[in-house]
Amino acid sequence: MAELDISTRNCIVEQEGNVLIVTLNRPEAKNAFSPEMLLGMYRAWRLLDEDESLYCAILTANGDTFCAGMDLTAGAEGYHRSTEEFMEIMSKVPNVHWKALLRDKRPNKPMILAVEGYALAGGTEILQGTDIRVGAENAIFGVTEVARGLYPMSGSTVRLRRQIPYCLAAEMLLCGEHITAQQALEFGLINKVVPAGETLQAAKAYAERICANGPLAVKAVTRSLREHQECLSEEDAMVASDELAGPVFASNDAKEGMRAFKEKRPAKFAGS
Predict the structure, then answer these.
(1) Check: CATH 1.10.3470 for 215-263?
(2) Which of 28, 145, 235, 263 is catalytic?
(3) pTM
(4) Where in the chain is the domain with CATH 1.10.12?
(5) Which residue in the list 125, 208, 235, 256 is annotated as catalytic?
(6) What are the phi and psi torsion angles at 160 (to 5°)?
(7) Which CATH superfamily is domain 2-211 in?
(8) Less packed terminus of the chain by CB within 10 Å, N or C?
(9) Cα(26)–Cα(33) distance, integer angstroms
């Protein structure tokens, strides 16, 4: 696995085959978001979108806490070059912090999350920008902003009620309390619970299954899953879905997939 030069001190970006692995790396501060971390994530998601050899990404973290949300004191650590670069990007790219946090302009490829320990406030909010989620048995989730008199700005009031039943979303948002990994699984907030220390392995297993499929088809399905929600009528959503489906069925990958099925062999997709 090769570390890429877009990494920062607080965000390690690596490539393993067709998978981008992004690791939050500020365990001494419970992986609270810092400018350097946001810069690394912003670079990683841009790369994921632009590099056609990358089929999906995994977001994970070092240490015993996945993420404690935003750290408003991060600037006190000292001014580093990557911090300065992020501030410069902020002046030029609208809402770059929201793009880093997967609130706006998410990469059009599947995102897999691996959570160990606490994922609170922004830690649970960034979860909602991913597609498949693995939690360790010791994982704790919560959108806790109201407990501090704050508002969850990273999209939970919009996304959470679309991803889990309304009453459960209301409970999480209005009570501001923690939930366990087992509760998160029962709520439908995560896909799987595994023993502590095994989330990255489980996330890689999901990535391997995704990468075995046609890249063009996976991208189109990912886009439809995210965009064609209840904000569209069923009829309008079907029309939008058909627009995405056309290029997939006309692709070389579709022809290869059908040939492979007929010949009873694994398909060899090329992403074209």
Answers:
(1) no
(2) 145
(3) 0.87
(4) 215-263
(5) 125
(6) -60, -45
(7) 2-enoyl-CoA Hydratase; Chain A, domain 1 (3.90.226.10)
(8) N
(9) 8
